[in-house]
User: What shape does this take?
Amino acid sequence: MRYSSSFALPLFAAIALGACSQSIGEYPSLAKRPAERVTAIYGVPDAAPAQTPLAQPDAAVLGQIDSLLAQAGRGDARFRRGEPTAQRMVAQAGRARIGSEPWSLATMAVSELEAARGETMVPLAELDRLFAEAFTQGLDVTAIAKARGTVIAIVGRQDDVLSGLRQRLGN
Assistant: This one.
């Protein structure tokens, strides 16, 4: 004999709720037990343990940082040189039809800026790698983090410019 699910579900629910309603005895108190009370008193420690400074990355890594910052600077200089041309081309294109000559020229100018941004991204990726390696080895990453922050700010500015140009171009 098969029971329909519409009949079985309320039956089982009624049985389960009926089991909950029976009083079998005294319930335990919800008051704090002696083991749950805080009785220990601790004093203030005399002094914090001395922090040992982290080891610096080797000289080759620190030398790479300067080289990577210079490389990012060259990429940014190329970006800044191409920025006025791209701004002018996008302004001339206005809301030109996609595929038209003004739109194509503006798109090529924006692509040149994207290529210059790519030159800035390469040193950022290398700085990310150096940071991860130094961090996992327990070395001081302060110098690498500072350089990363500088390059991230450059890339952020480039991203803002590119985003504005793409928006004006309708891409």
The mean pLDDT is 83. The chain is about 65% helix and 0% strand. The longest helix spans residues 101-136. The radius of gyration is 33 Å.
